[in-house]
Design a protein that fits this description.
This protein is α/β, with parallel strands linked by helices. The protein has two domains: about 190 residues, Type I PLP-dependent aspartate aminotransferase-like (Major domain) (Aspartate Aminotransferase, domain 2, 3-Layer(aba) Sandwich), CATH 3.40.640; about 140 residues, Aspartate Aminotransferase, domain 1. It contains twelve helices and eleven strands. Helix 4 links the parallel strand 3 and strand 4. The longest helix has about 30 residues. The two termini are about 40 Å apart.
């Protein structure tokens, strides 16, 4: 789904802009996978601390901005509205990965043009199915910026010469999603299976309720871990200050999310020992499960990166990431406490 969201508007020798701290899977897609599939697409990483950095990084070849609402490991909320406004003035759409904040954040309301979710996470809610969705907000004028989007404004030889911005006239400005559906899904594949679709629909029925409990539990965990002397830092929007806190309050008005990180004094070995000592938490790389999950990125998901690359993504030797689940808060805290005691 990440690749499809990008190659709907990018082709050889064109660019997408991403902010620096994407989660490991997304970083791999934009730096290694997509260029390998569609050779010549360039990705430039931009620091979103100052949204104007996106304006400075944009040129005539820029086709989109791509970002995550709540990126791990730093969990600093992306300035959606500020960057979307810059992009629209320049004719560049903002594509938001809102996987970590369904219900909590509505990127389209803040100016994003496209929203994507890995439905495997919170929407499904149980880690049983693999899937993703692309949502076109229908709010971006692809025809107005013909030079940036020739794939949508010139005849498509793979579909009887259709010009997508013209073909969708009776429907509205949805050239992006129509092309993604009738050409990329056809050519690249990966359609969602009917059974997985059923599972995700089941998950959607309880999504608002689950997100409330996820957020309440995560807030309690963040507060509790902040008192532990073995932890040097707790990473959660509730523990932030300054501009990061303001953005969290602005864009996560319905809850601060269930992802949480912390840094252990003992570094890599402390991180490994903590993970091995957990009894209720599952040790998996997924997020958004009904069950609480934990992982030590430096020795698992980010272990193939150099120390310098790990530091750039925000992963330190003692960093542990938690995805807080729906268990009773007393059970969650008890498991964390006994694992920390073993470190």
């Amino acid at each position: 789904m990440r690749r499809r969201s990008l190659i709907s508007v990018c082709r050889c020798r064109q660019q997408k802009k991403s902010f620096r701290r994407l989660r490991r899977a997304n970083a791999s897609v934009v730096t290694r996978v997509t260029p390998g599939i569609v050779g010549g697409i360039e990705c430039r990483f931009v620091d979103p601390a100052n949204p104007e950095n996106f304006r400075r990084a944009t040129d005539a070849k820029t086709r989109c901005y791509y970002a995550e609402t709540l990126p791990n490991p730093k969990l600093t909320v992306f300035p959606i509205g500020e960057v979307a406004k810059i992009g629209r003035a320049l004719g560049v759409p903002l594509i938001m990965d809102n996987t970590a904040a369904p219900v909590l954040c509505r990127p389209l309301d803040h100016g994003a043009a496209i929203v994507m979710h890995s439905t495997t996470k919170y929407i499904g809610g149980h880690g049983t199915s693999i899937g993703g969705i692309l949502v076109d907000g229908g709010n971006f004028d692809w025809e107005k910026h013909k030079d940036r989007f020739p794939m949508l404004n010139t005849p498509d030889p793979s579909y009887h010469g259709a010009v997508w911005t013209q073909a969708v006239k009776p429907l509205g400005p949805i050239a992006y999603i129509l092309k993604a559906r009738v050409t990329l899904l056809r050519d690249v594949g990966a359609p969602m299976s009917p059974f997985n679709a059923f599972m995700f629909l089941q998950g959607l029925e309880t999504l608002p309720l689950r997100m409330r409990v996820h957020c309440d539990n995560a807030n309690a965990v963040a507060k509790h871990l902040g008192k532990n002397p073995k932890i040097t830092k707790v990473i959660h929007p509730s523990a932030m200050s300054g501009e990061a806190k303001k953005r969290a309050e602005k864009y996560l008005s319905r809850g601060l999310g269930a992802l949480l990180g912390f840094e252990l004094k003992g570094g890599v070995e402390a991180g490994r020992k903590f993970i091995d000592s957990l009894k209720m938490f599952y040790h998996v790389a997924n997020i958004g499960d009904a069950r609480s999950l934990a992982i030590h990125p430096a020795s698992t998901t980010h272990s193939q990166l150099t120390p310098e690359e790990q530091a750039q993504t925000g992963v330190t030797p003692g960093y542990v990431r938690l995805s807080i689940g729906l268990e009773h808060i007393d059970d969650i805290l008890a498991d964390l406490d006994q694992a920390l005691a073993a470190v």
